[in-house]
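Page 37, continued from 36.
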């Protein structure tokens, strides 16, 4: 599943290389009705026609496209991707689900092989992501605030960091990498972390996210494009290999139905 760096990479591409800001939507196609969360396809097509794209941003793992009078939200889920096309293209269009046609002849296609992704056209984005937690990179999430949030929960740290209501944007890759950098075992109860450990974890989270963004995300599946952060993983999907730090054999366990990678020596359990 695309995580914060992958989604941020797509958003930056839509703003820069593809430059869809300022374009007016003249038509839309809903090729898989269940890709639309709201509204119904006919209403979607009627409402979005004639609206202009004012900005493209990100909130957690959501792509946020501000239109003239509404907001288009896209969540890529497991296999979603966004393509902007100009004229003829050789891209496989079999899995296109929602298409927006622009006045200049180009189009935006939401492509989703596994059909888990969703699109919303709403008046108020808060109706969709109002319960999302803070952004990991925002300045208001200080070490003190982060520690206080952790201290209020006795959940294991790995599933807590994956909880989008706790903090928006984290996924399996960047959580495993952050916990390794901060030497925290993934089963550690959140409220057992000291302030110093909490501050170290927040710093590690920001370090791996910024590095992921710098490298355009990770290309570990056929749904990701162009990133090379996978070449710099310290623990993720490296189970059975030696730890770069201590040489111990990296392990994989399942926590909350999620594969979790860690070093048993660098990340000791807390009793």
């Amino acid at each position: 599943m695309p995580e914060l760096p992958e989604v941020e990479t797509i958003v930056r591409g839509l703003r820069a290389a593809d430059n869809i800001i300022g374009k007016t939507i003249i038509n839309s196609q809903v090729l898989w009705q269940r890709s639309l969360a709201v509204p119904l396809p006919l209403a979607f097509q009627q409402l979005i026609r004639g609206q202009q794209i004012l900005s493209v941003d990100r909130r957690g793992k959501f792509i946020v496209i501000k239109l003239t009078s509404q907001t288009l939200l896209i969540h890529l889920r497991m296999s979603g991707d966004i393509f902007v096309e100009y004229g003829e293209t050789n891209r496989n269009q079999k899995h296109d689900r929602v298409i927006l046609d622009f006045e200049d002849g180009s189009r935006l296609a939401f492509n989703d092989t596994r059909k888990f992704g969703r699109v919303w056209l709403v008046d108020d984005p808060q109706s969709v992501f109002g319960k999302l937690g803070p952004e990991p990179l925002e300045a208001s999430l200080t070490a003190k605030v982060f520690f206080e949030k952790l201290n209020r929960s006795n959940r294991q740290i790995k599933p807590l960091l994956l909880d989008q209501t706790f903090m928006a944007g984290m996924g399996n890759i960047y959580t495993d990498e952050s916990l390794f950098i901060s030497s925290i075992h993934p089963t550690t109860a959140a409220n057992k972390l000291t302030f110093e450990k909490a501050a170290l974890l927040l710093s590690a989270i920001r370090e791996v996210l910024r590095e992921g963004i710098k490298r355009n995300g990770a290309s570990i599946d056929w749904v990701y494009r162009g990133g090379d952060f996978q070449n710099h993983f310290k623990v993720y999907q490296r189970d059975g290999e030696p730890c770069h730090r201590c040489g111990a054999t990296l392990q994989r366990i399942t926590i909350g139905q999620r594969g979790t990678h860690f070093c048993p020596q660098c990340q000791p359990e807390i009793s």
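The chain has two domains: 4-129, 143-262. Flag for discussion at group meeting. The chain is about 25% helix and 25% strand.
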